[in-house]
Amino acid sequence: MEKQLIIGLTIPFLGTALGSAMVFLMKNKINNKVEKLLTGFASGVMLSASIWSLLIPSMDMAKEQGVISWYPAAIGFVLGIAFLLMLDKIIPHLHVKSERPEGIKAKLKKTTMMVFAVTLHNIPEGMAVGVTFAGALVGDIGITVAGAYVLAIGIAIQNFPEGAIISMPLKSEGVSKTKAFLYGMLSGIVEPIGAIITILLANTVVPIIPYLLAFAAGAMIYVVVEELIPTSENGEHSDIGTIGVAIGFVVMMVLDVALG
Q1: Residues 230, 218, 246, 258: what is their CA dihedral angle, to the nearest 10 degrees?
Q2: What sections of the chain are H helices per DSSP?
Q3: Residue 14 burial (CB < 10 Å; 0-12/13-18/19+)?
Q4: Dihedral sign for Cα atoms in the order 95, 99, 103, 108
Q5: DSSP class of residue 228?
Q6: Taking the domains of the chain in order of start, what are their residue ranges?
């Protein structure tokens, strides 16, 4: 089981690394249509994962614990939204609505803000993987190891375009391919770390796992609504981003249902 756990926690990070490695295949700047498609795809995967891998299991687990099924899901979801909203207000990061950084943002290099933005996004993703594997380890609460792997693979799929979206724009701005790859890859390191911390916590507080699942779902939905979808729909060719959302949602749903 320990080997399975290590592999499962590593999968999302590998997705980020492989996506970042796409910079080595890049000749010039990333095509705007491709970027919109990748961002939309990432949005769809995260939306689907939030529903099929987090909120539904949260309600199922709560019901088995004798709690009103929707209560932990609702509370955890709202707290997840609030947590990311707080980080969004407190910590400076690259924002799709902020064309010209002001205040403390002006003191940060644009490349640093880009890396930090995606790193911030990866926090709830690592938490989601950790809490699902924690549920699988506990057993008899509706989450299987296969289901945990499904979420890890789904997030890895989402991380692939995310890594590319970091490294390729950095290359377009003059950063070397090697440095752009490293920046993109390192943005995913918080995922296995967050997952391990969550597992250690969840093992001692099993009753709140439904809340943690919903918390991760809320945080992921916040990222999608606040950052990813506006990016994919901004400017021309917004329909490409919408198509990407649909494809990503269906891919993740099929993975979850077929393998879970």
Answers
A1: 160
A2: 2-20, 32-48, 56-64, 70-90, 110-138, 145-172, 177-186, 190-202, 209-223, 229-233, 238-259
A3: middle
A4: positive
A5: I
A6: 2-19+33-259
- 127 Cβ partners below 8 Å, 6+ apart? 194, 195, 198, 212, 215, 216, 219
pLDDT at site 79: 94
Of 113, 132, 116, 112, nearest to 194 by C-alpha is: 132
Task: Check residue 107 and give its pLDDT.
Answer: 36
3 state DSSP class of 26? coil
175's tokens: 């950063």
Rounded to an integer, what distance in angstroms lies between the CA atom of residue 94 and that of residue 165? Answer: 13
Q: Hey, is 176 helix, strand or coil?
A: coil
pLDDT at 13: 92
In tens, the pLDDT along 4-57 reads: 788 888 999 999 999 999 889 877 666 778 878 878 887 888 888 888 878 998
Given this model, what pLDDT does residue 234 score?
A: 78
Nearest alpha carbon to residue 91 among 110, 76, 113: 113
Helix orientation angle between 110-138 and 56-64, rounded to the nearest 10 degrees: 30
Q: What are the C-alpha distances in Å from 222 to residues 73, 92, 121, 218, 248?
A: 15, 16, 9, 6, 17
Give the pLDDT score at 116: 65
Cα distance between residue 40 and residue 44, in whole Å:
6
Q: Would you tell me how many other CB atoms lie within 10 Å of the CB of residue 251?
A: 17
* Positions in the chain whose pLDDT score sits under 50: 93-108
